[in-house]
Amino acid sequence: MNRSRNIFLTIIIVALLIIGASFISRLFDDIQKQASVDEQEVRVPKDAILVDIQSSNTKQDWMDQVAANFNEGNVEVNGKPIVVTVSHVGSGSSMDRILDGESQPVVWSPGSDLWVTRMNQLWQDRNGRHLISQACPATLRLPLIIAMWQPMAEALGWPNNTIGWDDIARLANDPEGWDSYGHPEWGSFKFGHPHPAHSNSGMLSIVAEVYSSVGATSDLTVDMVKSDEASASLSAIEQQVFHYGKKDTDILGRMTQHGPSYLHAVTSYESNVIKWNLEHASELHFPLVSIYPDDGTFWVENPYCILDNSDWVSDEQAEAAALFKDYLLSNEQQALAVDWGLRPADPDVSLHEPIVLKNGAVPALTSESVPHLSYPSDEIVGHILEMWQQVKKKATVIMLLDTSGSMSGDKIKNAVEGALVFIDQMDAADEIYLITFATDSVQLSSGSVGAVGESVRGGLEGVYADGATALYQAIADGLALGEQLQEQDMAEGESCIYGIVLLSDGKNESDLPITWNQVLSQLPSGEKASDLKIYSVAYGDDADSNILTTLANRTNGKFFTGDVSNISDIYFLISSEF
After folding, report:
1. Which residues of 282-296 are buried (b: 16+ CB within 10 A; e: fewer)?
2. 301 and 109 Cβ atoms separated by less than 8 Å
3. By the 8 A CB rule, do 388 and 234 touch?
4. Which of 46, 306, 365, 514 could share a disulfide with 472, CB 3.0–4.6 Å?
């Protein structure tokens, strides 16, 4: 009996092994096949002509699809296949990276012609020639709009009545706020737009505000920009800005998460409103709609610029880029843009779904009914940015910098350099408070950047790495200071954008009595746009990412991961929030 049982068990085991081996073999074959497919998808022929395109974020979906279509066509130059790659960037930040030699694309496609003018002027200043010698054709015609919750837009008269930047300025300046429109429950107007140094829509927003304030649609002069009317109108709107940022879609995301009590409106593009209503319908408290300022807006071109006057674009790359340009502007690919909610540059392509009223768009409005504002010269833009810095809502930033022993060497050196980059982006009237922490936290400097900037720089350059990591204590001290500063400002009738910028490379390693739960109890809710926000940076692999992510998410800030190679870039990105 035992012998029979053993034989039976042996047969079963052998059978299972055979089945298992077969399964493993098939699984291995499937993995190999999938790896082969993946390799084919990313494999680039050795002799390929690469056309690297840096394109504004707004047209990402369309550009990705057109590039894929083009690559499937196996187009060649001199018998070599062309491979088009597209990365999606902010117009201002990508311009800075190209100017600084950190990025060398073959094609640059910013949001508007305004950036092309700026790029060529700055390149001329540095190198004695323009970077772009050829004309940059328009790929699209996207209206810059004010995205607003539908009930609020309807209170202003949307979609039947005209609404302009002057109406927004009047609402922003009205002490009665929304009560003047029969809605006291909405309080004062709360506005947002991206930072003009980083974003196309942010830059164009403040230019459009200036145009409206002086009643013009072209030929801005220095005297117009510096007039009392322009200053008062721009100040009225900008003092109601509760949120900047790198991209308008980031702000739309926060509006989606927190609803109408957080922000009432943000400058964006019609296509983003369409996309948001289609993709986030279940999350939105109300639909978003597009307000097309009747006193003028920008119908941005998203120009296609071959960087033909650079030192890095070869003749073959320029020729290949020209072939892709022709493909991009073909009737078929222009029609494809409409499917993504984008208005094509080709006027012969008709509009259709999803550019319809139910998605927050008014397709009947065109550049003939809503004037297209002329792009001012780079000099005029410089004056506008200068005035914006003077009238914008000021920032109060508490910088928490880890100086524990694990930060020694390049870590502390590069972190300090990044922090200095951040301070360089601040306005003289902004306030900076520097707290370093190791075994304990120490406040080094405080006050307006104009008054204490040099002492902050000196304090940063003098720090060194030593001791444990009093992370919880530093956060608690920063939160307590932030609350104190907010209370002081409220008592004096002032309002700022408040933030903590926290960098740490480790976990809490301190004998100080403060606990994580005590830190959590101090955090603001993040539900109000005026709340203090935490922008946290996990610096290296040993940082407590869970803690730092929680701090950012609960306060509606942002979390970043960094190292010695990119920390300056991260600090620069954080500066766009202020």
Report:
1. eebeebbbbbbbbbb
2. no
3. yes
4. 514
Going from the N-terminus, what domains does the chain have, and what CATH number goes with each?
Answer: 49-136+305-339 (3.40.190.10), 142-301+357-389 (3.40.190.10), 394-575 (3.40.50.410)
Residue environment code for 202-237, b if the CB has 16+ CB neighbours within 10 A, otherwise e: bbbbbbbbbbbbeebeeebeeebbebeebbebbbbb
Which residues neighbour 503 within 8 Å (Cβ) at sequence distance 6 or greater?
400, 401, 402, 415, 419, 536, 537, 539, 562, 567
Tell me the pTM: 0.83
DSSP at 535: E
CB atoms within 10 A of CB 166: 16
Q: What is the pLDDT of residues 433-475, one digit of tens each?
A: 999 999 999 998 888 999 888 888 888 888 999 999 999 999 9
Residue 342 pLDDT class (50, 70, 90 cuts): very high
% of the chain at pLDDT higher than 70: 93
Residue 409 phi/psi, 5-degree rounding, is 75, -140
- pLDDT tens digits, one per residue of 127-145: 999 999 999 999 999 999 9
The distance between the two most distant Cα atoms of the chain, rounded to a whole number of Å, is: 108
